[in-house]
Write a structure and sequence with these properties.
The structure holds two protein chains of two kinds. By secondary structure, chain A is mostly beta strands. Chain A has no helices and eleven strands. The mean pLDDT of chain A is 96. In chain B, β5 and β6 form a beta hairpin. Classes of the chains: A mainly beta, B mainly beta.
């Protein structure tokens, strides 16, 4: 069974650093792109970027470039989203998803989401 | 970035009604579009990929159509469990972009 399990909720202060994770199981983690998607309170979905764990190739959205880093460690089947200096506006739920490109590009499995709260 | 304009922003329909949601791309995207359903407090769920292909396990009352710039998600007979927000997502080029979402409620 394909599963993506994300790390738990975080409460941080502005300026702090943070790394959240997404661990895949039930499939060959190295061979599928992983997407990260943000959902701010009461708002829609925003595509942040993707990573191919096999070679750590990434495609970042310009809206998030320079503020967040997407990475992966294929040896432990885990993808990461990292901030060096959080802002209050980073308060959101973050989802990871597996992308299957064999039949178009579809995000066919999703993690449960990680709530990040940033407040002074 | 390609802009995806989704309409309506919300709709209210009766059980059994036919519901249509549209998504328009700011430029042609072939059939590189998916539709996702998100229920409150839950992760999105894939319904349709490649504009018209039904994801395995998704009820056949859901269907997608369109190509180029104009796309449609249709629920042939609305059921109570279909209450959710629906999003389109273009995967034609980077950055991928979502529509703003359509909230579907029962009248």
């Amino acid at each position: 069974e394909v599963q993506l399990v994300q790390s738990g909720a975080e409460v941080k202060k502005p300026g702090e650093s943070l790394r959240i994770s997404c661990k895949g199981s039930g499939y060959s983690f190295s061979n599928y792109w992983i997407a990260w998607v943000r959902q701010t309170p009461g708002k829609g979905l925003e595509w942040m970027g993707i990573i191919y764990p096999g070679d750590s190739n990434t495609r970042d959205s310009p809206s998030f470039q320079g503020h967040v880093t997407i990475s992966a460690d294929k040896s432990i089947s885990t993808a990461y989203l990292q901030w060096n200096s959080l802002k209050a506006s980073d308060t959101a739920i973050y989802y990871c998803g597996r992308i299957d490109v064999l039949a178009g590009a579809k995000v066919d499995f999703w993690g449960q989401g990680t709530l990040v709260s940033v407040s002074s | 970035a390609i802009q995806m304009t989704q309409s309506p922003a919300s709709l209210s329909a009766s059980v059994g009604d036919r519901v249509t949601i549209t998504c328009r791309a700011s430029q042609g995207i072939r059939d590189d579009l998916g539709w996702y359903q998100q229920k409150p407090g839950k992760a999105p769920k894939l319904l349709i990929y490649g504009a018209s292909s039904l994801q395995s396990g998704v009820p056949s009352r859901f269907s997608g159509s369109g190509s180029g710039t104009d796309f449609t998600l249709t629920i042939s007979s609305l059921q109570p469990e279909d209450i959710a927000t629906y999003y389109c997502l273009q995967d034609y080029n980077y950055p991928w972009t979502f529509g703003q979402g359509t909230k579907v409620e029962i009248k």
